[in-house]
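Lab meeting minutes (informal)
Scribe: AK
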Amino acid sequence: MQYSGDTGRYSFLFRGLLCALIFIAGSCQSLGLSSDSLVLVGAGSTVPLPLYRKWAQEYNNRHTNVRLEYLPLGTSEGIRQISGGVGDFGAGEVPLTAKERTEGRLIQLPVMLIGIAPIYNLPGVHHDLRFSGDLLAQIYLGHVKKWDAPEIARLNPGVSLPQVPIKVVVRPPGKGTNYVFTDFLSKASAQFRTQIGPSPSPSWPVGTPADLSSDMANKVKNEPGAIGYVEVQYALRGNIRYGLVLNSAGRFVKASRETMTAACEAVEAPQWDKFSVSLTDTPGIDSYPITSFTFVYLRTTSADSARATALADLLNWIFSDGQRLGSQLGYSELPEPLRDKAKMIVKSRR
């Protein structure tokens, strides 16, 4: 499905995409679309799904003839769709490759900061456990198999750890959460880097898959002995215990707005123009080590001026009022200088 100068044809194809894929509406009529309505559709990661749902609710309430809809298809699929000319933007946590930028004529912009947290279900343990990157790597390589293993006890002195198996939960291929998590583990463990490496589609040697971020959160919450990894707001909303992670300064840090912002500032300040593709394991005593941007993937040009104008308006709203709404959900706002640079790029696309 490519952009076309024939706006009517594009609108028809886009309505077909909505009717075929959108999970929140039973029919096109239920969306309440008039013949002159414009629907902006994004597709991608489930990590920011609650964010885009909230943004769509608020943005749609403010606009009578423009709607935002978001399809949680996974990061890799989101990149594939926007590269093929489907939709208005993709979303995810995986940096674009040089080939994707060139062949798909794409750019990426950060829209919020996220933190991937190790979540666990360990009845009887009421402490926030400490994890290092190497320990998490050994668990996900299948080498540390019980919760009372010496590697875990060493990092958690004084904690009475049960002698129960660790039930590893993983995400399936094509997920942005996978990329951020494996990017961090690859920096922390040479063995993990050699055996698996950073990837949205890692070949996990152990673990039970959970398709959506919400599925992983629910699986860990309902399975004693389980461990998983999700964007921190899923842990907060599900009241799931999550651990502290050892950062590059040698401090155990918990994911929070402050520690994610510290990780971003350690890389981006003072120029604020790198739009860094990796915020994992950044320097700084307060930096949370499994921090990432969640990106939008955009085509560099559009043949439809009305859609381009509407998309620019949406992005400018995301970089202003949308940040506050994201913060209310547990995501972390982009520092203001970074937002200003992103707005300049949006303006240059119109």
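Next up, CB showed the second protein from the same session:
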Amino acid sequence: MPLTIHQVDAFTDTLFAGNPAAVCILPAARDETWMQHVAREMNLSETAFLVKTDDGYDLRWFTPVHEVDLCGHATLASAHILYETGVLARSAEVRFHTKSGRLTARRDGDWIVMDFPATPVKPADQLDALNQGLGVTPKFTGRSKFDYLVELDSEQAVRQLQPNMSKLGEIVTRGIIVTAKSDSRDYDFVSRFFAPRSGIDEDPVTGSSHCALGPFWNGKLGKDNLIAKQVSARTGIVRVTIKGERVLLGGQAVTVMRGEMMDASRR
């Protein structure tokens, strides 16, 4: 029986911006090999697979290369599809069971707010491969549970980066977050995210990186409520609220297309 796959642009209200993710609601759990094949076929930064449970959904995320433990934009895309297709009422909270524990999402007007674990950054020694790969000397280098975080002196420096992906790929980490204070009064900080070891040279908008960016900029700016802009070519906006050991991530999403996967029962 064919399966419907939705493609959603997350952290944007505009088609062809934000970060595209595929969402597949499965009638029953499938094996990892099959899901990895589907993710490779979709060739997006993330493909999300959902299976209904008694109190929510099991949720797993796959890049074209491997499964990941936490993904913001594909979670946002999943919640968006559940609401948009009428599977869940707009007033209902979504509960996801994931490798990073239970995550929730709820609607707030035209936005969806997700409750994620904070992944605070600790100072780290500078790495030659990191500095050479970025082609800059960082103002600060730190590391979260998943990624390296590098602060630069200016938004312009973040925007102008032309990283050496081969060199960054030598670093054993999920990805590299590069950030700076925003030049605009509309945003508190900007960032970019590079993950060549995960098969993604530059991720357009990375929700989970804001689980580290939020606490980092909260400490520097003294603000619990922050507005972030990821300045990739597609760009995207993330609302970030610090709640102790949790981070609330707000974003919008728009469905781009739907399709049917044929012979879905076959591996």
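CB comment: The mean pLDDT is 96.
No objections, moving on.
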